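PROTOCOL LOG
Step 1. Enter all chains and additional molecules of the complex.
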Amino acid sequence: MTGITSSTALWYASRATGVVTLLLLTAVVLLGILVNRQGRLPGLPGFAVTGLHRNVSLLAVAFLAIHVVTAIADPYVTIGLAAAVLPFASAYKPIWLGLGAISLDLVAALILTSLARARMSRRAWRAIHWLGYAAWPLAVVHSIGSSADARSGLVLGVLVACVLATVAALAWRLSQAAREIPRAGRAAAALNRMSARKAGLR
Amino acid sequence: MTDSLTLPHPAMASGVPSSVPPGPGLPRLLPDAGTVPVDLRAHLATHGPLRAAGGGDGLLREVAAAGLTGRGGAAFPVARKLATAAEVRPAPVVAGNGAEGEPASSKDRSLLWLSPHLVLDGLQLAAGAVGSRSAVLYVPRNERLHIRLAGAIAERAAAGMDAASVELVTAPDRFLAGEESALVSRLAGRPALPAYRPVRGLPRLAPGRAALVQNVETLAHLALIGRYGAAWFREAGTEAEPGTMLATLHLADGRTSVTEVPLGTSLAGLLGLDGGPGLAGTGAAVTEGPLGTSLAGLLGLDGGPGPAEAGAAGPGVPSAFGPVQAVLVGGYHGAWLPAAAAAALPLANAALRPLGAAVGAGVLAALPADRCGLAETARVARYLALESAGQCGPCFNGLPRIAAAMAHLAGPRPDPRARADLERWAGLVTGRGACHHPDGSVRFIRSALRVFAAETGLHEQGRCSGTDPRPFLPVPATSPATEEDWS
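Step 2. Run joint prediction.
Step 3. Record the structure below.
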């Protein structure tokens, strides 16, 4: 930890964007669980949560791209373009970078299928979207394994917070799934909710 | 396409006659009397046996030349759909869609009741054109209609007229039951719910089993094009939108009528907004209330311009049936237009689309000046929200929220922020459903916000221009709540 110089800037950029990407991916998973269960956020209509889920995921992709590009460009360790996308092709920390590469590929599949969602069957899209539950833990393990920062101090705190939040959201999702409204009654249930809240303004 | 038709289809066997007989004048689809259903003998006496102009894929060319478009609402070119279906192997099931889930429309059930053999002819022609021997007629759950159609199908089968077997399938009484993918789902034995489906190609019941779905009125037009050809078809309508269509008119005096009109007919003439008698179609059939109940006598009630508005708060346009403030064009997925604007328009997409409206399935409602447009819209918005299939979050969460805000706006002294909220939520649900239910519902509600803007201002001041509290637009009373209601 000697300060940021021209020779270490890329290294720092890669690590920093890695942490931000993990935070954003965690937010995407939490929002995705919320969307799946038609959950709400304070101050937002229920259906705007979906928009947030999409937009945060695109933001995560932007940071993920910077994270990967800076890691490749950084001269300190040699990570080829191939190692970024092909699992376990890296000479440097093959296991940990390999897990990151798998996570990257899964995220790419999620994003591409979601962009092409109108052109594919809903069943196929859903099946691929389940991969989100694999991409996120892989990214967490990749973070712990490939970075010594993540094993102590502030970054460790961030990681632990992300894991706890996701585990809590998963538990909530499972409890919600147990008491699901059948689809024929959903609009009526929503309408009753709105009427009870006096026209549902704000 | 020619070699895909390996067997000469019996429907095509008669080929093209040496000289095409003169086609019927107007009305084309509905009986002149407008009241007496046409039985098989009368049908054959009027139109002669089923013919496919040109034979084989000649029918496809004829339909393309006629420029026939789907009359279920989407106005998709029929020739293109038939051509796609003719390439599909194994041959698709051909389905005549008469579900007509739209409560404001009764043209399909009127047609099925009055001229069933034109629809059945069209079903056979479509089946022949795509090489299929399996057809389905998808109709509302109505015992009298079912018995009549089953009788007509059996009579034709006994006479050996039909090459394709026809099965009657009942549609659940839901707004979305006639949506194409919902129909296909029903045919496959699943609940009649809209589904995500590929953008290209025909919808599928199962892998390797496609369906060609056409509205029943479209099929009736097809039957006539097969007999009288494209040039005859184009004698009515406009160059861009040829032919006639059935329209369901909700007149300002509360009466409902189904009439057949050439495309391009002025809305003013139809709704009596021009000082004329109204119903300027061909006056073929006027029906109201239960299926098949004839009100043809009402045609005589066209006694010139209506009474001048007395005590009407809205800037109504006088019509033969009373002052009108706004016209709903295209049904509950359509758009409101101010009466003065509508009076200057023809019934044609070329003129309506720039104003955000469309011909749709031919529903026109002239809202009387003494009703509150916001209250009418709120009632329909609530109905549309409850008709959500409950499959897509933006639809089953967004539409109830929008409906509740619309009800708030229709009430006394609404929050001035309600309008902006409605616009924002409307934007959030558009394009976000598996089917077009959210889009269509939002189009309808947004048009109300535009057309009844002055009324919104009145409501904010605690006033309302509506003096007659009776509902005008038809909305079914019951709102189903179980999965069985879809099947």
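Step 4. Note key features.
Residues 101 and 175 of chain B are 4 Å apart (CA to CA).
The beta strands of chain B are 93-97, 134-140, 165-171, 204-206, 209-215, 244-250, 256-262, 324-329, 335-338, 363-368.
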